[in-house]
Structures are given as structure tokens and as C-alpha cells.
Amino acid sequence: MIKKVLIANRGEIAVRIIRALRAMSIKSVSVYSTADKDGLWTKLADEKICIGSANASESYLNITNLISAALYTHCDAIHPGVGFLSESATFVEAVEKSGLIFIGPNKDTINLLGNKVEARILAKKAGLEVTPGSFKEMENVEELKTLANQLGYPIILKASLGGGGKGMRVINCDSELESNFNIAREEANKFFANPAIHVEKFLTHPRHIEIQLLSDGENVIFLGERDCSVQKNHQKLIEESPSNVVSPSLREKLKTSSIKLFQLLKYKGAGTIEFLLEDENCYFMEVNARVQVEHPVSEFVSSIDIIKEMVLISDNRSSSVMKENPSLRNHSMEIRINALSCGKITNFIPPLGPSVRVDTHIYSGYNVSPYYDSMLAKIIVYTKNRQESIKTMISCLSELEISGIKTNKEIILTILKNKKFVSGKFDTSLYKEIEKDL
Q: For the chain, which residues make up each domain, given as ranges?
């Protein structure tokens, strides 16, 4: 039985996990780099331990240091959070070899889903519609040119072992093929230590939809869809559930085929399947074999603590939730507040109110460093419908104060008040359309 967990992460997700563990009467150990010695997560955990210098490769990505810290503090398990090593099969294997429990999918599942080409093949087998494109690595420009002309431009090159918006290149004509082919391979190798790339048809005006699932290896439950179409450079800014463009029939179709995919995988833990919706076609993109940053909106509409369920599943403890078909209610929306500069936060006042949640690691006096992800906080609201969520979120932002540094607060406000966003008639190009007004 898990009694103590090391959280191999930082920031708001580390704080989120600590709070879930505390509610379960499980001890927590936070890790921190020398740049993060005053992080809120180090103050809230039962224990804390330094794992290296500010450079992530020497701390949050240092497998040896993380496992040594877990063993030194007598932990039973490690929760990877999001980013960093959360989808590293090498990390999972090292965790298990050390006698610890990894709170998440097993290494074989992560390995398979980490290869975007293999994931596309499996998704097709499960009955999901897959974006037109290659089912193998592109080995040379001539091979790419042949397929590009079959698909029709524009196309997009993707790192086969990548994610997070990195290693992507959009191509509009034959003359752009060679230079982008070489750049994409270089970026794939730089970010993911493997130059493998594949090609897909580039959808110009899609909505970004993702399905949240929980699975214990046998039972799979559906926690609804999230709409993550408001993005800047493939980085999400606003997420909501349910999506106003997913019909009941499409929702049921996505639910059925997504559950089948996780059953084929014998998946264990929380996972998200991402899709692009265009012209009533919903195309499979990839599976994120971990908890997502935007998981709180799914928690609100389902009334299920996803972090808690991840722990129970990894500990092979039964949960009544996994044998139910959760009912999904009302509407939830999340916005991300990102830092646009570094420095000390001189004043922080979060919004409060009924059905308002703020996940954050910042406080007055906290120093925002340049070393890590720029996200400072997530504000999540839960209301009867989408229009109420928009109004409530605008009210929340009027209360929010973060002084001493620049943030994207005004950018988010502009989006929330945009006519296309309010009407629900927008796609992933919305940010670019209104960027000139920001």
C-alpha cells in the first residue's frame, strides 16, 4: 500500500498532487532545483529534497537523482506530474527496477504511444478516424514529395517521437519540401533524440478536441471531452468542457472508439486522446499517456478527482468510480496565466467565489525564474453553461492581481470578449486572427 510519494515535478502540478495525497492521508516528498528552493510545493509537502542545479537536465530530468531522492526519503512511489519525465519509458523502467511504483501507465504502453506512427496504426485498428498521412517514417525528400502530392498541400511534418508542439513544420508547396524536411529532422533530433519524422495532411481550420479517460487495465471510464482550440503556437491558452461543436452522436462515437483503444492497450491510469475536428470529421492525433494540465475541467464536470484515481489504480486498490458510468454535468472552463517576464511578484491576489478554483504555485514575494515553463496559474470555473463560464471567468480576471512582472492576463481577457469566441464559432486559428489587436 502506497504510504509516501515523491513528486518528480515542480510548480502548480506539484502543489496539486500534494493536496490530493494529503486528502488520501499519504505522505508527500517534493523535489526542487537550486533555482526553486522557495517554491510553494517545497513548503506544502511533508518533506523536501534538492535534486540538482537550475538546469532541468541536472535536476528535474535527472533520473538518477530523482530515484536516489525517492529511496533516500523511503518513498513507495513516484508521481511524474506533467512534462519533464512524465512520458519517459526509460524513467518508468528505472523506477520499477528500483522497487518503486510509477503512478502512471507502464513502460510498454508509454513506448508504444510515444511513437506517433505506431499510435496511428493502433488507433485505426480501434476504429478511430486517423488524419490522412504516412504510417511509416519519411526517409527522404523524394518519398515525401510523392506522398505530399497524393495528400495535397498543405501538409505538416511531425517528429514521430515528439509532442508539445515541437518539431512541427507546415509545408505549402513542393519548393518548401527539402529545407523543411531537413529542419524537421534536426528539430526532432534536438528535442527528442531521434530524427524520425512522418507526414500528415494539415488541417487549416480545425477544432482541437480531446477525450479524458481513466482506466485500471480492465475498466475504462469516459470523463467527457475538452475543447482546447484556443492556442498560441500549439500551446493551449483556454480549455473547456463540454465542447459546443461536439454533438451527442459524435460524443458517443468518440467515447466508444476511445474506450476500445484503451482496452486494446490494457491501459492503466489517466490518459487523453487528442483529435482534430474539421468538416464533421474527427481525426485522431495522439495519446497523452499522463495527466493533462487541463484535467481540472474534467474533474469539475465529472466530480472525480483524477489524481486520486491515478494513485488508487497504480496501487491496485479498488475504486467504486471505476465500476460506474460517471454522469457529466454543466460546463467548466480553464485559462492559463503565463509570465511574459521574469522577476519578483510583489503582490498576488487570486480570484475567489463559488465554483472558482485556482491551481498555482506563486505567492507575493515569489521569484519567477527564466529556467522553466512560463505558466503561473490556472483559473478554473464551473457553471451551468458556456456563457455563464465566460462571464464568470471575465469576473475572475478583473479580481486577479499579479504585480511585479508582466503576464498574459489582458491577452486572455481580449480572447474571452472576442465575438467569435463568445459565439463558439472559431477554430485553432483564432489567436492568429486577433493577434494584431493584442
A: 4-103, 132-201, 207-437
